[in-house]
Each structure stands twice: as structure tokens, then as C-alpha cells.
Amino acid sequence: MKKLIFIVVVSGIFSIPSFADDNYGCEKKLQALEKQLEYAKQYGNSYRISGLERGISNVKKYCGGGYPLDSKEAKEYYATNSKLEVMEKIEDAKKDLAKAEYKLGKAQRKNDVEDVFEAEYKIKEAQGRIEMYEKYLSEF
Asked: How many CB atoms lie within 10 A of CB 129?
């Protein structure tokens, strides 16, 4: 069971999307909506078609901080948002680290070996996430 938890956590950690990718954000949303629109047209779903057309219009109008999709400003807008998202993930990992350290102290006082092991595992996992996100942030 612990191996399964480890595999799930590790796979979740290393499946971070590349926020620096040029195809992230508005363009990616637009492509997904256009692909869905093609399927809706294939199957003649008029309600879905009208909703997707409205969605495409909204993405073109409002996405990218109000800047045109291919503009330098829109790319800067997404780069800034990506940095903020990574910083939020670092803060979440730090909170998880603090909780795990608290649980470790509590488990050590109770001499509960299983809880100590679990808390130590969570500490290592949180430290790994913090390190990974900080490394990713430094690459910006």
C-alpha cells in the first residue's frame, strides 16, 4: 500500500505542465474549443455548436488579460500568472511540510512508529516538492 501511495505521489509531482510552453493558455483553450466545435458540427449538435462558438468568441475577446492572443503582452501575462501559480504551489508545499513536522513531533511523543514513518515520508515528499518547484521557478 505504501508503495502505491509513493508511486501516486511521485507521478503527481513529475506531471507538472510546462507553463513556459508557448502553446499554454489562450491558444490552448482556443484549440480545444475549435476541436470540440468540429466534433459538434460532425454530429449536427446545434446547441453544442452555438455554445462552443460563444466560448470561442469569449476566449478571443477576454483571454490573455485583454491582449490579442499572439501579442507580446499576452505572453508576458501568462508568464507572470505561471510564476504566481508556482509560487502558490511552493506555499502549499510549505504548509504541508509544517503539518507533517507537527504530526512527526506528536507521533514521536506518543512513540507511534507507524505514524512516525508516515510523517517522515510526508516531510520528505513536501521537501521534494518545494525543491522541485523552486528549481522550476529559478528557470523562468
From this structure: 21
Count of Cβ atoms closer than 10 Å to residue 40 Cβ: 18
All residues at 6 or more sequence positions from 31 whose CB lies less than 8 Å from its CB, including other chains: 23
34 grid coordinates: 475549435
Determine contact, residues 121/114, Cβ cutoff 8 Å.
no
Backbone angles phi, psi at 98, to 5 degrees: -65, -40
Count helices and strands in the chain by DSSP H and E runs? 5, 0
Residue 5: inside a domain: no
Question: Tell me, what amino acid is at 99?
Answer: K
Gap between the Cα atoms of 27 and 33, Å rounded:
10
Domain assignment present for residue 3? The answer is no
Tens of pLDDT, residue by residue over 19-60, are 444 445 677 888 999 999 999 999 999 999 999 999 888 887
Residue 14 domain-assigned (yes or no): no
pTM for the model stands at 0.52
AA identity, residue 86: V
Query: Is residue 135, in this structure, part of any structural domain at all?
Result: yes
What is the domain range of residue 112? Answer: 83-140
